[in-house]
Amino acid sequence: MGLLDTLGEVAGAIAAVEAAEKLDPDAGLLTKGIAAVAGFKGAGALEDMLEKKDESAADAGQGDDAQA
Length: 68
Fold this sequence. Notes:
By secondary structure, the chain is mainly α. Helices cover 90% and strands 0% of the residues. It has two helices and no strands. Helix 1 packs across helix 2. The radius of gyration is 18 Å and the shape is elongated.
């Protein structure tokens, strides 16, 4: 899963840089770098949040089966 996580983070970085270029066509290297870091970290945080949500949903589902 490590490779897929990294690919998701890289895709987030690329999307953030593209968005920065759309907002400011004359964006400098520093702006693009900041956007890339923000996209990379944001994608990682989003994946972590979704994993926790999936785990809690799975735990809730197992608890229902045990009671039935």
